[in-house]
Amino acid sequence: MRNILLVFGVLTASTMAFATVAIQVLPNRGAHITMSTIAGQKIGNIVAQRVDLSQYRGVKAQLIVDRFGRPDHILVYLQEKGIHRVDFAAIRLNGQFRAISNALPYQLQAVDIAQQSTPGFVPKCPDPSVQFISFAPNDNDFEVGVATDVATAAKAAHLKTVELYRTAATHDAYLNYMTCPNLIGNFYDGDSDPSEFVTNDGVISAAEMAALNGAFRFKVTNIWLACEAYNDPMLSAVEKGAAAQKYAAGISDLQIGPSDQAGKCTMIAAIQGQPMKEAFTACYQQFDNSADVWGFGGNGSDLFGR
Question: What is the mean pLDDT of residues 191-219?
């Protein structure tokens, strides 16, 4: 777990002036919480008091409640500058909605994952004809542009393509489309750690990917701009649990920019019929550098859609 950059003391006007990112307050669907504007502002203020916002390119906050429905902690998403990585912190709360801890490094627990979607949610394909997903959850023109370029190539190859960007890139929508029976391609441009990857409204966990239980049928190629997602538990969840045809993601952190171009190049080449391992090697050499360590594997054909 990485060090979290903290700010101690009371929020001041100068602190707010130096803040370089806004805090996105996320919904809590599992606990049926409707976040009022006042409550959202209070969560934002608590986070701003305890995290040096200037150190991150994005910060999100999500209220997590205990089994009695009482505020327990704020789950803080810390999107690292320059790389496709998210770290997590937690700020503990008392019953009066006051912080009783600083922002401490945190590993998500079952209670956090359970509150990402409505109770009883089971992924279901909304359109069985869908063949390709392009997913970019961050409000970032570059990442959305990369994903759009990939989607354009998929559509040019006459693949039924769904594009989920920014606020449309939700937890439930992504999992729903990943169950579609004719899916053959899945491109992700966002942030992750080895256990979760970011959606616009929260995270999807390795356990949720494993629970897809073979939905990819060794017929879906996944290329993810995602730091350390080619490590367990996410690696096994995608390659074994979901049964990916091919899966590429970061073993190390991946730099925003070079890795996006390499991932885009690889997916477009695959869609156009080039052997995928060969295409990945060529695209990596052309666009990326040795600081980015990728994993590329899977138990299916080396030809896209076969």
Answer: 98
Same domain, 220 and 255: yes
H or E element: which one contains 209?
A: helix 206-210
**Looking at residues 284-303, what average pLDDT do you find?**
97
The reply to whether 182 and 280 lie within a common domain is yes
Residue 47 has pLDDT above 60, yes or no: yes
H or E stretch covering 174? helix 171-178
110 located within any domain: yes
pLDDT band at 18; cut points 50, 70, 90:
very low
> Two tokens at 251?
């073993």
Contacts of 185 (CB under 8 A, 6+ apart): 131, 132, 133, 154, 159, 220, 221, 267, 270, 271, 304, 305
Q: Between the CA atoms of 249, 230, 59 and 105, what dihedral angle is there, to the nearest 10 degrees? A: -160
Residue 2 included in any domain: no
Q: How far apart are CA 283 and CA 293, in angstroms?
A: 13
Same domain, 21 and 169: no
Helices (H) and strands (E) in the chain, counts: 9, 13
pTM for this one?
0.92
Average the pLDDT over 112-139 and give the result: 96
What confidence score (pLDDT) does residue 84 get?
98
Boundary-marking domain end, from 114, 143, 159: 114
Tell whether 177 and 66 lie within a shared domain.
no
Q: Closest Cα to residue 112, out of 203, 42, 24?
A: 203
Structural domain including 141 reads 132-297
| CA distance to 80, 154, 156, 189, 223, per residue, from 257 (Å) | 14, 21, 24, 11, 15
155, 300, 228, 249: CA torsion to nearest 10:
-30
Nearest to 254 by CA among 87, 117, 85: 85
Domain count, the chain: 2
4 found inside a domain: no
